[in-house]
Amino acid sequence: MNRREFNLNLSYVAAMFALPLSQSSSKLRVNGQRVNGRLRELSEFGKNPQGGVSRLAYSDADLKGREYAMKLMREAKLGVGIDAAGNIVGRRAGNDMNLKPLVIGSHIDSVPEGGNYDGDVGSMGAIEVAQTLAENDVALRHPLEVIIFQNEEGGTIGSHAIAVGLTEKELNLVTNSRKTIREGVKFIGGDTDKLAGVVRQPGDIAAYLELHIEQGGILHSEKINIGVVEGIVGINWWDVTIEGFANHAGTTPMNQRRDALLAAAKYIEAVNRVVTSVPGRQVGTVGKIQAFPGAYNVIPGKVITSLGLRDLDAAKTRMMFEKIQLEVQQIEKTTGTKFEFKQTNSTPPAPTDVRVRRVIDEAAKQLGFTTKFMPSGAGHDAQEMAHLGPVGMIFIPSVDGISHSPREFSRPEDVTNGTNVLLHTLIKLDATKLS
Ligand SMILES: [Zn+2]
Q1: What is the pLDDT of residue 434?
Q2: Three-state secondary structure along 277-294?
Q3: pLDDT higher for 49 or 397?
């Protein structure tokens, strides 16, 4: 029996009896030097003077980075194509024609003046996993797809095109590279006339896995190897307008003022107090503020400010919002002002699949790593893919929690560890019946 048949049979046995990983598969490791070397090579496309990258979606640097990624995918023996939405899709056949694909991937576009790890680790990691499988003749039951989603930083556009579809309005949005999404999709080799063909239905994937940097400082400060992501938090934003009364700052006594900025100060403090009053990882932010008319000698008559609430649990977010409303009623009374909240964004939370979480945790522990279950406070392509099937995310530490910055850094050993966890989670999922 040659090695290929041997592995094929093993995965078959594992699938039927859910046996623990075979000795040969469990010893499989990715090439850490290679994946880290590729991260360095990728960082040349769109390199900025601060040491990071500005590889905006639909820019020349994006195009060059994508060509580089496609070259690597071919080296990993994947059948490579660009779908109508401009996503790069690499395919590898599975042994069972009846199974839906296991999908792994991430993105290589960046924010302006971004770093070399956000998206890149998961993209290079996914290709490394495919190459490791190919080099070791490991056959999977499921087909494998490695997807590099286009324009993640502009609002998970490529994955949204696959999971939900793009509207005319979305196609006309102008992006950071000054092209509309429609122009951008064409620029990177997609075809906006055929977008309907890329939309997939729930159940069209067996599972989606994404390796990513944490972008926060929890794993780094607690010295934990691997984060098992419980889900991507829901994001809710409101524009908040506070109406008071603008009057002379010299002649109006303190007890006769309706100071909108004073009300705003109390409001900002109240948001912080409400959000920190219950245990959990929920966050609340007042991130912008403007006072009118904005002069030394005028009591502020109007303030435009904001509210942002994020959590994995939509009910908890609603509860926090209601508590903030109660506080606001008190502030209105004591300051003689009127608050108005207008919701501008409401992205529901996207929990990861409980079974996939367990498999990631198990794979990481068998490799000798420490793990922590945690939410993702940032958005990811995985939240879109969750429309189609079970998803899971693997986090590695971000040194000092810095991200979306040229100073973003993850240690090479953490990149290697995360890629090995991705490999072994994939192999375990291949032997698991998820649907
Ligand atoms: Zn990212």
Answers
A1: 77
A2: CCCCCCEEECCCEEEECC
A3: 397
Could you tell me the distance, in angstroms and rounded to a whole number, from the CA of residue 314 to the centre of ligand 1? 23
Extract the tokens encoding 182: 């429609």
Whether residue 293 is preceded by a cis peptide bond, meaning omega within 30 degrees of 0, is yes
How far apart, in whole angstroms, are the C-alpha atoms of residue 368 and residue 416?
Answer: 13
Q: Amino acid letter at 229?
A: V
Q: Which of 258, 243, 212 is nearest to 106 (CA)?
A: 212
Contact 129, 422 (CB under 8 A): yes
Cα first-last separation, the chain: 32
User: Separation of 382 CA from ligand 1 center, angstroms?
Assistant: 10
> Tens digits of per-residue pLDDT, 325-370?
999 999 999 999 999 999 998 989 999 999 999 999 999 999 999 9
Tens digits of residue pLDDT in 62-111 = 999 999 999 999 999 999 999 999 999 999 999 999 999 999 999 999 99
- The answer to whether the CB of 82 falls within 8 A of the CB of 185 is no
Distance 137 CA to ligand 1 centre (A): 30
- Three-state DSSP at 251 gives coil
**396 CA → ligand 1 middle, Å:** 12
pLDDT in tens, 140-168: 999 999 999 999 999 999 999 999 999 99
**How far does residue 272's CA lie from ligand 1's centre (Å)?**
27
Q: Calculate how far, in angstroms, residue 213's C-alpha sits from the geometric centre of ligand 1.
A: 8
Measured in angstroms, how far is the CA atom of residue 212 from the centroid of ligand 1? 7
Burial (CB < 10 A; 0-12, 13-18, 19+), residue 40, is exposed
State whether the Cα torsion 189-193-197-199 is positive or negative: positive
pLDDT of residue 1: 45
Instruction: Estimate to the nearest angstrom the gap between the alpha carbon of 58 and the chain centroid.
Output: 19
CB 254 within 8 A of CB 310: no
pTM: 0.85
> Do 330 and 263 meet the contact criterion of CB atoms below 8 Å apart?
no
Count of beta carbons in the 10 Å neighbourhood of residue 382? 25
For residues 246 and 112, give the distance between their C-alpha atoms in angstroms, rounded to a whole number.
39
- The Cα 233–Cα 236 span in angstroms is 10
With the CA atoms of 392, 395, 401 and 403 taken in that order, what torsion angle do they form, in degrees rounded to the nearest 10? -70
Nearest to 231 by CA among 164, 282, 183: 282
Q: What is the pLDDT of residue 16?
A: 41
